[in-house]
């Protein structure tokens, strides 16, 4: 079964297509199919755990090198988790609460990343 996902990036009006077997991490040569399988396995262990890119990479016995793929991995985590719970017939309240917590965690980390990259902040 081939899954096609349509997405758009922030501040980008174009719609992009994300097919299965897309290379997500070029440093470790990891495809989105492999990432989805790991996420599903983690959800099978505990379906309400908080999954972050570091946990996914640890489960694959890999390390994030440049970490440029982490935003895409977060998007895959969100999509795969939503699909997983839709198949499980989880209640809307359970899904909404979990996904809002995950998105809030993602936004908090994105803000921290932006703060570290301010021109006014120098590293030594």
List the helices and strands and how they pair.
Elements: E1 4-7, E2 16-19, E3 23-25, E4 30-31, H1 32-45, H2 53-59, H3 70-88, H4 92-116
Antiparallel strand pairs: 1-2, 3-4
User: Biggest sheet, strands in spatial order?
Assistant: 1-2
Strand proportion, as a percent range, falls in 5-15%
Q: Report, as a whole number of angstroms, the end-to-end distance.
A: 51 Å
Mean pLDDT: 78
Q: Summarize the biggest pleated sheet.
A: 2 strands, antiparallel
Work out the helix count.
4
Index terms:
single chain; 124 residues; mainly alpha; two-stranded antiparallel ribbon; 4 helices; 4 strands; 52% helix; globular
Commentary on this structure:
- The protein is mainly alpha-helical and 124 residues long.
- The protein has 4 helices and 4 strands; from the N terminus they run E-E-E-E-H-H-H-H.
- The chain has helices at residues 32-45, 53-59, 70-88, 92-116; strands spanning 4-7, 16-19, 23-25, 30-31.
- The chain has a two-stranded antiparallel sheet with strand order 1-2. The chain has a two-stranded antiparallel ribbon with strand order 3-4.
- Strand 1 (4-7) and strand 2 (16-19) form a beta hairpin.
- Helix 1 (32-45) packs across helix 3 (70-88).
- The model has no long low-confidence stretch (mean pLDDT 78).
